[in-house]
Amino acid sequence: MNHFDTCIIIAPNPAQAWIFRKLLDRRLESGLYPKEIDFRIYADPAEADAGSGGGTVLALAQLFKDLSIKNPLDYFQNNRVLILNAGGHSRNLPCYGPEGKLFIPLPVETSSIIPPVVLDIQLQLFLKYPWRQGEMLICPGNVIANFSLEHAVNNQNGICGFAVPVPYQKGSKHGVFQFDAYQQRVLDYFQKAPAEDLHNNTLLEGSEQAAVDMGIFSFSPEAAVSFIEFGETRYNGSFVKDGVQSGELGFDLYLDVLTSAIQSISFSQFEERLTGRSTLPSDLLKRLYELFHRHPLQGKIIPEADFIHLDSLSGLAKSLQKVSRRRLKAFYALCGGEIKVNSVGQSMMFNGIASSAYNLSQNSVVLENVRDCVIDAAMGNNICMGVADHSFQIEIPEDICIDERQVKSGCLRMVYGINDSFKICPSASDILYCGIPLTGWLEARKLKEEDIFSEDCYDLSSAKLFCEASTDEFLSGYWKIPDDPEWSTKFKNTKRFSIQEINDMDNAFDRETQRVNIRKQILKQLILRKGGWKEISAPDFNEIFSDSEGTAALQSFCDQTEDPLLKNYRHTLLQELLKETAEQITTPDIKFVNQTAVVPGEIGIRKDEMILSSAPVRMDLAGGWSDTPPYSLQHGGEVVNLAVTINEQLPVQVFCKRIDESCIRVHSLELGQSECITTFEDINSYAHPGSRFTLTKAALAMLGLTGKGIDSSLEQHLEGLGGGLELTSVCTIPKGSGMGTTAILGGVILAALNRFFNITVSPDKFYRQVLQLEQMTSTAGGWQNQIGGMVGGVKLIRSCSELQGIPTVQQLDSYFFDNENMKSCFTLYYSGIQRVAHNIVEEVVHEFNRKIPARLFTLDRIKQLARNMSEAVAERDIGAFAKCLNQAWIENKHIHPSVTNKELDTLLDRARPYILGAKPMGAGGGGFILFVSESTDQANKLRAFLDENPVNEQARIMDFGLNKDGLKLVVS
Known about the structure:
Distance between the termini: 50 Å
Number of strands: 40
Strand content: 15-25%
Radius of gyration: 34 Å
Structural class: alpha+beta
């Protein structure tokens, strides 16, 4: 998942940019949108038409200013940028998206109280898109595109657009490619050309279809730089970008820029084609041509694609039905989504809730953002939005839209026709209103133009048509000749507003807040009816039940949940909601392996024999955290790590032997501690705070030495076996070093005890035993540590999304760590900063259970990095290896901020001149850091720097070697 780094949203003016920021901030603050993407909103000039090309120039110029970028080509070569042109005011969608189409709500199923919008569906595509390094994509904000990524273009240079084959007649409002007979090479490109020209020039071989562009275009780094260069072209004593900002200049991306990139046309042909269509003067057209003609226009035909335009009221219902039928997904949706779209035939309701049944015709009717609204008769192709607490006792005729707004002065209802004219027209007779010419509408109601227009500008959006507190009877006078002879008098004597004025009093953020409140009600009712509550995030859950209503029912619902993962999730949300009584809620256990019911019945070694169980430690290269339950149990995990010796020694060792005494003696050499276990109570104390040797005691308990099913004491039971045992452990690297020592020690102890008691288990069960051991001792880690140390080599470890899924191990190429020249580029440094992962893991596991989409996005990203790392290892690409290492560390910091600190960050920053990449080991940042340098010479400089500038007295360079054997068990 090489997702884009930056998403630029271009708003039509500063006022709309302010609204967009509020809508975006709501999503970021709720954890709906990921931290990994730098979302930026820039605005076109307030009173000028910059055009899609001019807007792109201004946005990139502002980005470079914000980031202090000095070298444009270097920036574009090392970043991925998505630009979304949100477009101007949606005049043709006055009720649905007056501030622009990017945040238009859609009939898409999710479990968020924030309604899904066009941006969510666009991001679903672009987050799966196979981005290459140094790619910039530009997409319009009024298009919903979805297609198989196997057809995605790999644009190495120039400009490349995506096209979909459709009847050529539909191309007259879009851009259309002319391909060669093999559909490989773009011969020409037509922007909004007449259908006849498209028929004569663009038909795909053997068909009546043409390749219509989706509006999505990919730019190579060099092509992207051309926008910067054009913006910095001198013009009238200043720069082009200044002319665009002032409103003096503007140009279109899809006309000016793409036409200039057609390789088959000369400048004179280019200039002739744009005469009367482009607003750029001739000298700037020539400069534009020179810059972009260097980057050939290419195209890629997508055989099957969802390509849905949201451009007018007349086509809105069909577009929304397509979205619903295709079951398009918001990028953050986990499964099916708990808030459903209510569909009846061709009619649909979403973001709506009602206390009484609807009586709708089977014709197309769209209800959105409605609450307790009843329509007795809607004749079809109707849109009803924003209506609250109202029952229409009137018949709403075909093609009529009712748009209710809640503003400070009260409730305003607007009425207009689906096919009305929302553009500026030459005269009133050219305007269509409620399905008829406006002059005829006025005449039938004994009104004059001056009654609704304050100036000679024939724009339906500026007509003062809409009254406060309109009754049903009065409202019906808009679409039929009024029965009330006083209708016209009431109309003229009532304070009225235009669409523009109402939109100025209202805004998309406030309307979305209405939708949020409705969706909270939907989810609340759903959960209290014991439906749903599978995907809702903790912040949303807290908002929904902030009034504490139904908490007893929630507790009962949670207690009755049988699925352990689902119960764990519900418990987490309930515990957070009920903070004052949280201690009364029992945390459910997740069992990865059943504790044995068979009590050890024999000793498997002679009295003079000793078991030596030892293992390497592991270095986590990428994927760590994706192996940690509950994420790994629900989504599967992927990790790349390697088993290593430190200073040519296996760092984790356990010695186990028989003793004559009927007890269990345990020693830790590095801690200088010992304990004699004589009772089952001593063994079961592993769960008590402050208990020592918890790993050994928990392992003994797992093997059945708990006292259950045993009629004698521990001493008597051991005496019956022929004696006790003595177990001595030593770890030659510090605790909290980030090398997985705790889990590996647990595995080494368990392996020794299994051998001591002559117990045989399969490898997969052994891995799950160690995982269960960690849960029993509250270290709550994942499976990568024990497998990392138990299995040697460089490996990609995967697990499926099952409660007791078996991880699979794939050995990878060991070239980086076998070849002396390559191995010399790696440096393992012990920083002396000991960071125990326990509290961090506990907090992160809690966050997993809160199901915040941004957190899950990071985990998906971490999992993808393991795949990227395995590819880098397979291809022996040290640069890609280092890049994955760097990114893995960045993602770890997204997971939990305390994995790092100022001391560690300073060390990494100071080492940057000598390295390609670095990553501190382990969940908690750890004491060990793996550095990778470009060459042996650079690595030697790094080592000299580290020796001369130790972080503390404990800091030192450590020798490490690849271990290919893993767990070693010897009886001697």
